[in-house]
Amino acid sequence: MSVDTSAAIAAAEAEMAGFAAEKKAVEERIRDLRSREDFKNGVYFPKEIFEAQQDKLRLETEILFRQNTIRRLRLELG
Length: 78
Fold this sequence. Notes:
Structural class: mainly alpha
Number of helices: 2
Helix content: over 70%
Number of domains: 1
Oligomer: single chain
């Protein structure tokens, strides 16, 4: 493996780890918002939950993009 390729893979893996931690925090926020909803008393958070779900999807896409980048770099090495 060349040094540049190894560095690129390491950078992508580090970014993936950061995105995974962020995704976990967003998932916890979604669970928290849903558990605090009380429809009988008119307490609900549709906008906040929707935005958090969108953020979660964005993070999943970022993780997938990094996984594909790593896979491509490894394939180029043969």
